[in-house]
């Protein structure tokens, strides 16, 4: 497999966006594409609902349990921390990780509730920094039209509007924005280009770094 060489690492590619922006479909397709080119690649997603922390999060999202806003924020963060060492070893062994949501979701969703943004960012310090963040940009109204929301806690138009504003505040130089209202094929192609570019830069020796950088 390409990218499996001892001296080259995998890339950390993060997809972000509002609920129903198409991240899940696109991240799945991207992984297949990178694999077809011979790159060792895995699809990850947060929250990872399979762990015990993830099960608490899942229960909260489906409104089966209630938690204080700060408490759930820290659980989402803990869910990323519990996978951090595995993430580092995968990347160092040459596997590229395509990750559906990461710390930016953590900060955007919790600060949209009114929590202080610096407080929200603090528990993410020291997690691995993505090599690229791809934001699938969709107007909240358009996202809401896409077959309706699934009924989880945050899937409400007014709240998603606030989340969109928070993402705008977080957006920095290493973010790539894709218009998620383009055709599925267009989005797919743009994403492939961005990811491939990033994978190559990492292979050439770009060092791993930590949040918030
Ligand atoms: P998903 O499984 O991608 O549909 O995500 C579930 C929901 O949880 C979605 O509305 C986004 C939200 N979410 C994802 N990560 C975080 C996080 O770290 N903190 C908070 N508060 N919400 C998050
Ligand atoms: Na969702
Ligand atoms: Na998703």
UniProtKB/TrEMBL annotation:
Name of the molecule in the record: Thymidylate kinase
Similarity-based family: Belongs to the thymidylate kinase family.
GO biological process: dTDP biosynthetic process; dTTP biosynthetic process; dUDP biosynthetic process
Domain Thymidylate kinase-like: 15-190
Gene Ontology molecular function: any one: nucleoside diphosphate kinase activity
Pathway(s) per entry: Pyrimidine metabolism; dTTP biosynthesis
Enzyme class label: transferase
EC number(s) on file: 2.7.4.9
Keywords: ATP-binding, Kinase, Nucleotide biosynthesis, Nucleotide-binding, Transferase
Organism superkingdom: Eukaryota
Example of a GO cellular component annotation carried by this entry: mitochondrion
């Amino acid at each position: 497999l390409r990218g499996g060489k001892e001296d080259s690492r995998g890339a950390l590619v993060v997809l972000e966006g509002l609920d129903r922006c198409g991240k899940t479909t696109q991240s799945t397709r991207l992984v297949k594409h990178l694999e077809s080119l011979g790159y060792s690649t895995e699809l990850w997603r947060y929250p990872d609902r399979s762990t015990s922390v993830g099960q608490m999060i899942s229960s909260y999202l489906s409104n089966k349990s209630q938690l204080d806003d700060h408490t759930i924020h820290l659980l989402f963060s803990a869910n990323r921390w519990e996978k951090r060492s595995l993430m580092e070893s995968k990347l160092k062994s040459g596997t590229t990780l395509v990750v559906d949501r990461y710390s930016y979701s953590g900060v955007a969703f919790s600060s949209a509730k009114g929590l202080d943004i610096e407080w929200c960012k603090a528990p993410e310090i020291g997690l691995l920094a993505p090599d690229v963040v791809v934001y699938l940009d969709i107007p909240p109204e358009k996202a809401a039209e896409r077959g309706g929301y699934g009924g989880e806690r945050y899937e409400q138009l007014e709240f998603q509007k606030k989340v969109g504003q928070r993402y705008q505040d977080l957006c920095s130089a290493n973010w790539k924005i894709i218009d998620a209202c383009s055709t599925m094929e267009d989005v797919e192609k743009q994403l492939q280009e961005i990811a491939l570019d990033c994978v190559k830069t990492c292979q050439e020796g770009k060092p791993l770094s930590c949040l918030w950088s």
